Amino acid sequence: MALNMSVLADLVGETVIDKDAQTTPVADLVQEIGPDGIVGLYFSAHWCPPCRTFTPELIEFYTKFRETDPGRKMDIIFISSDKDEASFKAYLSEMPWKAMLYEEKDRKLKMSKKYGVHGIPTLVFIEADTGKLITTRGREGVGRDPTGKEFPYHPKSLVEILQGELLKGDASVQCDEMLSGKIKAFFFSAHWCPPCEIFTPDLVKTYEKIKADGKNFEIVYVSSDTSEESFQKYYKTMPWLSLPFKDPRIDELSIHFEVEGIPTLVLVTENNELITMNGRIAVIKDPDGERFPWFPAPVEEIALDNASNLNESACLFLFTNGDTALQGSAVELMNDVAKNYRDEQKASVGTNDELPLLFFYYDGASTESVEIAKMLRMFVNVDDKEPALVLFDLSEEKKFSMSAKGINKNAISKIVEDFKTGKLQFEKLDF
């Protein structure tokens, strides 16, 4: 089978470097590991204490696993977040694998975005000749399976995780029987967590209202309790299902949804497709469940609960500058374009032509929205004297802007099409 040598080179550059400062063509690396080869992208840095702890573990795994037949089809490339080249070289000197060239900072940013890397250390395993993501949780995989028996740590599907028994009060029930064909929410929480204890009674009320309305809905409690006594005490306040205390599926669900803190309420469809990770905010804003199951709108007013997206991907932002007419028409102006782009992006995931995420926002009249927009205007250097339409990417430090006076659907559609095809003429952001 012919190998595609260009995909990995497009990601990390044409050459990689080893601890002896010897460069190797990426095409040779792909050829060496052969068909079905797998590459680990190790995002790390010398200054990072968790990285310094994990790197020796990864070296031990790499050294032993590369001696096995499956291990010979795997290699690792270090993607540095070091603050200077001297630190990069000192850290690389400890590693038996190769590294992306230190100066390839733009490539690092693009890979971080492509594979959703938000912190270090992160070990991402991909198919070498397609770039297709296998898992972003390689670090956890190596930690629980240092011999590589489960390599390459394909994440389990939700269907695979949700097998076996659940608790329903004091009784045991089967997952399939209780969850099949239902919209499901997974409530990651714990008795010891004050925000969890505050939110839980509100969630109970919303759950009971939704169930009373006849909606096909169920919640599963995913516990981070530290003792069975506290788990039992807390679970008695809940009218829904639960995984048993210390059930191994708790960690599997946390990995599957990449949960980083509690309380978190994740909702999925009847077909186990993600609806939202922000179910908690949805319940707080809509306690009667009138907009259940809270699918994200294609166009949203900027607010604290969605502002984190500004740092994670490209955004098309309509700065209304308090123009009430423009605020009133913002959703109508952008909605069709936003929905079409979201559908195209979703369909492209996992292909060689995968589209980047693009969020659509506008600033409304609320104090919260106005303050976020004011701060954002400074970041993207947009005049506050008139409305503006700006497509920006903070992580790549670039923007495209134009006056929003007389803006129409065709103009918005043209901007998004140019973004999609790489024709949009960006200028550099100066922070």
Helix content: 25-40%
Number of helices: 15
Largest sheet: 7 strands, mixed
How many individual β-strands? 20
Q: Segments where pLDDT lies below 50 for 5+ residues?
A: none
| Helical/strand content category | alpha/beta
- The strand order across the widest sheet is 2-1-5-4-3-6-7
The CA-CA distance between the termini, in Å, is: 48 Å
Percentage of residues in DSSP E strands: 15-25%
Q: What does the overall shape look like? A: globular
Radius of gyration: 24 Å
Mean pLDDT: 92
Oligomeric state = single chain
How would you portray this structure in words?
This protein is of the alpha/beta class. It has 15 helices and 20 strands. The strands form 3 sheets. A 7-stranded mixed beta sheet has the order 2-1-5-4-3-6-7, with helices on one face. Strands 9-8-12-11-10-13-14 form a 7-stranded mixed beta sheet, sandwiched between helices.
Keywords:
431 residues; seven-stranded mixed sheet; 20 strands; 21% strand
What's the gist of this structure?
The protein is α/β, with parallel strands linked by helices.
